[in-house]
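Title: Prediction job returns without error message
Component: structure pipeline
Severity: low
Priority: P3
Assignee: unassigned

Description:
Job completed but the reporter wants confirmation the result is attached to the right record. Sequence as submitted:
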Amino acid sequence: MTSLLLSTPAASRALAARERVPLYQALTALALALSALCLLWIPFEARQIAGVPVFLKPMKFAISFATLFGTLALLETCLTAKARQGWVYRLTGLVMAAAFLAEMAYLFWQAARGEASHFNLSTPFHAFMYRSVMGGGALALVVGIGLIGWIARRDEGARLGPALREGIWLGFLASSILTLVIAGTMSAGAGPFTGSHPPGAPVLPFFGWSGVTGDLRPAHFLSLHAMQVLPLVGLWCERISPARARGFTRLAALVYAVLTLAVFAQALAGRPLIAL
């Protein structure tokens, strides 16, 4: 009897829907797998680019993508089916997935060749990949973050408290706008530094941020992770002071944006985040 019920078209569609892995979960798993692959390969790779292992940059980007898509996967579990099935939401996910795959493919390709991926304009091909594929992909990703934050804000049936919803909306919006400004400045200047960073000069461990001159990457880091920090602030505020949670979350968003812009201005002034 059970097998007969499962053989009906409606039951088959329901079973397929349950077994389908959500897009953002799949992208998170893929990004984690790529970061693990880089981590395992780095000890066996002697080549370097700008003094660091060639596969360190792909690993950092894979970790960043895993954080991004993991955040979106968590949010997706709180949204209503209507919001998840909307054409804007689904199209945004597909565009972000395509941008992720294209960027990681080029990062791995360049690492395997022992060549830089970012700010590499040495040939027409490299200029096209950096400016159009990677630049366009980055634009699609940050706009997509803003769109999903907007969808979460408008999804009245989402399982989100008022402050958490506010933190998601403001965090995603801040990530989108601040990243456009800061990453756009980095691209326009063809590099992260706003002063001279001599070869061999001290840098912050792991991050590689300059310890001797202005570096735009700390501000870029803060802008990217507003989408994780501010929702967590909203969730925390709901637990300690539910009546004032939304106001505290908005204040935290303002402070975070000012802090990010201050770090950005410090870099533009040619001063390192931490002098070494």
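Comment from assignee: result matches the submitted record. The chain has two domains: 20-159, 162-276.
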